[in-house]
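Today's session is about reading a structure prediction critically. Students often jump straight to the picture, but the first step is always the sequence itself: look for stretches that repeat, for charged clusters, for runs of hydrophobic residues. Only then move on to the predicted structure, which in these notes is written as discrete structure tokens rather than atom positions. Here is the chain we will use throughout the hour.
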Amino acid sequence: MLHYLARRIVSTLPILLGVALVFFLVFNLVGGSERFLYNILPPKGRTPETIDQYREAYGLDRPVIVQFLDTVGDMVTFDFGRSESTRQKVSYLIARYVPASAALAVPAFVVEIALALALAMLCARTRGRWPDRLVGVLSVAGMSLPMLALVIIGQRFLAFEAGLFPISGWTRGLGAIRYLALPWLLWVTVSVGYDVRFFRTALVEEQGKEYVRAALAKGMPRRLAMRRHVLRNAMVPILTYVVIQVPFLLTGSMLLERFFSIPGIGELLVQAILSYDLPVMKATVTFYTLFFIGFSVLTDLLYAAVDPRVRLG
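Below is the predicted structure for this chain, in token form.
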């Protein structure tokens, strides 16, 4: 396993190189350095002399290949300097905003996956009967509700009218739970339907295989067969589906962060794009890339844990 992890760490470098190339082409060449200088300079300070000084200070007068290597070096060493908007260290901003995003996305995602898996197991066991049909109808109804509409309804009726939740706000520590409860509820309501449908399909397909029918014919209780055989072997496509969603948790929470005033990484990225804050954008893109790679490695490890046929080469 250590050999496998070492190879995956080494393979991260070409991925970061590709991400750095795309970032550099989009924001340095296509977006242009002039826009970056326009945003960081005050209107009265945009004289040719000042622009030349800033261009030299940020290395924008150097050859393109040197600027690209600087971008790669920043991503590899995690040295992103200071934000041009707030003048705070980018590492401080990342460390401050990431926990809020994690507090919003991770608990809601875990609860939603667990609930979807439990409902999918119920549907697979009662296939064709009323529990299966009821859950199917509710899943489709949840899938049909747009998040924006639910946010407006939740803030209007559950927060403002009923007073069950704060409309918006944020605080550090355990006090944040009261502000996160409504976003968690909305997240689970919108997302659980999609996952129930997929998990049910994977479980029903596995349930129809010969080894399951043989186990049931030998007298194994259906509940035990579902847990010991069907669920375990259906976990490979389920894990693939879940891990594909994980990297999008940070971007998927942007809407909730904006409407509920939660200072998360999505909000930081939006502010950086609006102000063309290159150091912050570079840091968030790097963080997002490493987030994706980390969960890809975790997926391979989970494959080996749930399926004995999988070996980490």
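Discussion point for the tutorial: Residues 2-77 form one domain.
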